[in-house]
Amino acid sequence: MRALTGDDVYVFPGARDRNRPMSENAILTAMRRMGIPKDQMCGHGFRATARTILRQELKIREDLIEHELGHQVLDPNGRAYNRATFLAERRLMMQVWADYLGRVNTI
Q1: Of 15, 21, 27, 65, which one has the fewest beta carbons inside 10 Å?
Q2: Higher pLDDT, 82 or 11
């Protein structure tokens, strides 16, 4: 993505401030311009779709998916003791996801 975004922090930066992510409203506006009605899909729906495919089709561990989505991940001792980030595994998961999207896109 660096070839497309340069050294920006975000792949999809905000229109007014490149140091902030694109807003949810910008995503919704883009979807509506593409003809996707609001009763069919919302921006957050992409996260739900990704989570479902990562778990169900690609058999990725739930805790890795939840970490990547920024969700709270509980362990038997609760959140207070769960400081793991699993960055190496999450990088691999995102490569598996990118490879999956590449395959789906060519079908």
Answers
A1: 15
A2: 11
